[in-house]
Amino acid sequence: MRQIAIFGGTFDPVHLGHLIVAETALHQVSLEQVIWVPSLNPPHKQAALFEHRLAMIQHAIADNPGFRLAGVEANRPGTSYAIDTLIDLSAVYPQTQWYWIVGLDTFRTLPRWYRVAELAKLCHWLIAPRLLSCETKVESEFICTQVEEQMKEQYSIICWQLLHVPLVGVSSSLIRNLCRDRHSIRYLVPESVRNYITHHNLYAGYEGGKRK
Ligand code: ATP
Predict the structure, then answer these.
(1) Which of 125, 117, 113, 120 lies closest to 160, judged by CA?
(2) Most buried of 3, 96, 102, 185, CB within 10 angstroms?
């Protein structure tokens, strides 16, 4: 059975933190592929045009044969949910052990995800510790165990493991804020993504605050 991971997110824009997480997952679990799935209409966020986010991911992953981009969410109207993505991709890739890549901040919200009981049975969780949420492996494991307990009480047992990523304090909101303030984002995103942002003048009028 092949092993494939889904990496969902807003990717507004994709940055080096995302790329490091996906590359670590690819090798740590011997995945055949990491499929990047930008959300069309994230439930809790306002985001740049889907076409821009898609194009930036395309640029960022172009030289990595282990990465591919899926625009599956574009085929569905309304809010994007993880369970729908997994069901759609399972039809395209049968006989697959699925993994789902998330940052620790996102994983903490898992018990509140839409149809999480079904989702939890269908995939294993690969969790990337994040500088903004906690600093040590012990703390990360503690938080994941708490989520696991909560899931067990409410729904079912889940399978998870921490990704051994170097902690990188880069976030999309940081990039948007830097662009808005006309500061450099060099080395925080791939050069091709930086050029894309400049060319399309993205985030110049970004009005969000320092969320992270
Ligand atoms: P924003 O700052 O707008 O909230 P973000 O940087 O968290 O964006 P998303 O597209 O929302 O980016 O993230 C997609 C997934 O990647 C989430 O599960 C998130 O937790 C994870 N992630 C993002 N950046 C990092 C990072 N630097 N280290 C580990 N995980 C990350």
Answers:
(1) 125
(2) 102
